[in-house]
Amino acid sequence: MTDLILHKDQFCISTDKAKLDIDSIHQFLSTQAYWCLNIPKDKVETSIQNSLCFGVYENEKQIGFARIISDFSTIAYLGDVYILEEYRGNGLSKWLMEIIMNHPDLQNLRRWILLTGDAHGLYRQFGWTDIGDPSKWMELHNKNVYS
């Protein structure tokens, strides 16, 4: 898989894991991300090692992140998407989604999935819809795993 590095003004999106600021990502996910509050740093590190990651940077400062879990053939799960609050409103999450959805290794998948509590409008701009038949979906969810 080839690393992508794309620039727009003073911002950059990269899939190079060596650029990722693990401390910054862990800080956001463990203290501000409603979906994984208190996540241990070692869990974040392992999740990054096993995912296709997209870092968003202003110059060299990490200001956003997203990761994909995929077999790169049939399915992809989009998770841990964020832009730091002070950088929101600049079109960065939309640009991040454009880069993710157009990544060459994520084309022609049968299914994409994600969970969101508040960003439905963003994802709908890229063709995402509510689950058509929720009765077919199941989950095993331990919401207190990091407590």
From TrEMBL:
GO terms for molecular function: acyltransferase activity, transferring groups other than amino-acyl groups. It comes from the Bacteria. InterPro entries: Acetyltransferase_Butenolide, Acyl_CoA_acyltransferase, GNAT_dom. It holds the Pfam family Acetyltransf_1. Signal peptide: none annotated. Residues 1-146 form the N-acetyltransferase domain. Keywords: Transferase. This is N-acetylglutamate synthase-like GNAT family acetyltransferase. It comes from Chryseobacterium defluvii. The lineage of its organism: Bacteria, Pseudomonadati, Bacteroidota, Flavobacteriia, Flavobacteriales.
